[in-house]
Amino acid sequence: MAFITSKWNGKEYFPIHNFHHVEFYVGNAKQSVHYYRSAFGFEPYAYSGPETGIKNQVSYVLKNNRQFFIFTTPLNSNHPGSEWLKKHGDGVFDIAFLVDSAKEAYESCLSRGAIGYNKPFSIKNKDGHYGKSSIKTYGDTIHSFINDRDYNGLWAPKFDSVKLPNVKTENTALVKIDHIVGNVELDKMDDWKKYYETIFGFMTFVRFDETDISTKYSSLKSIVVRSKNWKVKLPINEPAKGIKKSQIEEYLDFNEGPGVQHIAIHTNDIIKSIKALRNNGVDFLVVPDSYYDDLKKRVGNIDEDIDKLKELNILVDRDEEGYLLQLFTKPIEDRPTLFIEIIQRKGSRGFGQGNFQALFESIEREQALRGNL
Ligand code: FE2
What we know:
Elements: E1 3-4, E2 16-25, H1 29-40, E3 43-48, E4 57-64, E5 67-74, H2 80-88, E6 91-99, H3 102-111, E7 116-125, E8 128-136, E9 142-147, E10 174-183, H4 189-199, E11 203-208, E12 219-226, E13 233-240, H5 247-255, E14 259-267, H6 270-279, H7 295-299, H8 306-312, E15 315-319, E16 322-328, E17 339-346, H9 356-369
Parallel strand pairs: 2-5, 6-9, 10-13, 14-17
Antiparallel strand pairs: 1-11, 2-6, 3-4, 4-5, 7-8, 8-9, 10-14, 11-12, 12-13, 15-16, 16-17
This protein binds fe (ii) ion (FE2).
């Protein structure tokens, strides 16, 4: 049964202030950068590579208002990212958090059973103080801890400014990361719930299973953990048994294991954002027209014009605190794994559970086209 609570009962072993950035491993960062600039409106922010003293990889940092995405490509087959890419294809490697001390965060997590990935690294120089450490999470994904609030250099040590040719793009009005969702294996969701509660001191504030969300052919179970200040929200899905293949199972097959399923990006004006993203060539899931027939009955009065929402295929969901508007892209890569969600919140702190039925019907149509249903 659905379970939602907003009362904090976690343990803040160390403050996690916010998402710091998301780092992708990609086969060709130069081309990925062009896509995220032209389609999603990101701007080049910093670069590291052979020119800045890093011999085996290139990384581009892109910025869009308050969110940073990094695209990293290994330059040789010995780089651990090459194995990662061979297995998973392009995808999210690191969900990084802003903390007070990367060293203390790392030691705190390891003392409660976390597995380290990169030991704490810290530098103090004319630019100030920068620290980073990383631990493992589901699949081949990691969490980095960054302290850079006293660092005045550009992005991080060994990063430099980057100048790229102009790209034509419409302002997408995307503001910040709202939540990042992971898909894990069957019966593993509760292990990862425990991991985030034990290691991070997060609390579980939403839980739903096949009795809440189901379609005729596919279903999933989901929980959401969050940080004390609500800035970091991490839903975790696992497949639930159905007559045919769950979309989470399809993800696990194509990703060859657990990983990040979607990044939800917050906007203050979803109509403006979706219009711009569509004009920039972003491909969204198709919502059946019938979805809008009973929308008013389902969500009551909303500020937006329903015809406008229908035209742009925007979804709406309401809970006791308010409502939210959202829309999901189709997978943004050839493997049907990672996608992006655009979300605007008007009081609701939910994730659009009421939209799952409509969303799944739409996803299943895509799945059927690929012969995986
Ligand atoms: Fe989401």
